[in-house]
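Per-record layout

source: Collichthys lucidus
name: Arrestin domain-containing protein 1
length: 452
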Amino acid sequence: MGKLQHFEITFDKNKVVYSPGESISGTVTVKLGQSLQCKAIKVNCNGFCGVTTKVNDTAWTLEEQYFNSTISVADKGTLKQGEHKFPFKFLIPDSAPTSYEGNYGKIIYRVRGFIDTPRFAKDYNTEKAFYLLRPLNLNELPDIWGTCSSAVTQQFTYMLMKTGTVVMKAQTNMKGYTPGQVIQVMTNIHNQSGKNSGNMAASLMQRVTYETKKPTHDVRTIAEVEGGVVKAGKEVEWKEQIIVPPLPQSSLVGCDLIKIEYFVKVSLKSPDVMLTLPVHIGNVSLDNKLQKTAAPPSSAAAEATSAPTSTPDTSASTSATTPTLPPRPAPKPAPRPAPRARMSSHNSPSAPPADYHQGAEGGTPMNDGYPNKRQSQLVSPHAFSYAPGLFFSQNQQNNGPATAPSAPTVATAPYPTEGASSMPPLLILPPDYGTSSYPQEAPPSYDESCNT
């Protein structure tokens, strides 16, 4: 390097991540092999955003400056041989957005050092980047509480002549997540056609918009999970989980050139059916305690709390507060057997109805407005990819009634719902056939039936 052997910028405590409003300080180190004349040694700290229309291009089409400060740490003179250190300090504005690097734009923060030499001598410069993090608190976003749901009905033609319909409904358990959390996606697909569908898929998508003269949209898949097919005429309830990887936050507050959005895409590959569920990615996760104070109690929740105290009959109050649950008929006495049923001479009760048996095998039924839930659970009972330590509410008997009402003002808490254990658990327990009104005596024989 000739006269200049070492020219470097170091930050105090080797810190590289800062927050808006903080001060950034460090040292410029200059090591010379021989004396060097200079007009000044300057240190500059700046932050800006640049966007372009070409991938990984630094010839910015548009730029946005956030701050640009320069100080002089040495005046005109001669630097002697050896090592020289010059301290510096800058204040980062509160309005500066979070650092970001994308295919068509970047938000860059850096500290640069300059040695201005006289006349036609060579100038020297160096720089070092640092990163700015403006935490996004999900609890401060409007309309962040509750679940995110959507539905779509798609008609399609197959075999040139026949027409079919697919009805898809999907929801996520929350509207905001932080890296490391799990997005629980619940999907109900009703194939009302005579053709089997393609595989189901759920994807976490990122869409970045770069505001140039003609906005550039960069859409990519972050994570994807795939399920099975839906047979002709069948209805399936599919549950999946997507772990959120480390990602840039949804909102770059203070930046007008780059916009980041996230959504969950649920789709069928054949026919082409798709719906999207917008979600937010932040740095501070949702706090259930803040939800209780921010969201007023719904009328359905108020009825569920007051009904057991006013009515001593627990079963009656439970059915009154959950009007959307499918009614279960009371057990009826078994009819007298036909002649071919003479082998039924035992004294045990008859077999339970088919719908009760399906409910016991398929898990706790969730009343989310989707018909035929128990059948869809039995169709693909092993289609769920549960992670260790994670669970859905239908696996916990005490949490079942909390998710039963389908009104959007009730199902606003993430899984598992706190306080659900105080609700009557009778709706999710299998019936007690030992106390039912089924006949306890052996049915009459064929001769006795004929005589009567």
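summary: Confidence is low (pLDDT under 50) at residues 297-326, 336-439. The chain is about 10% helix and 35% strand.
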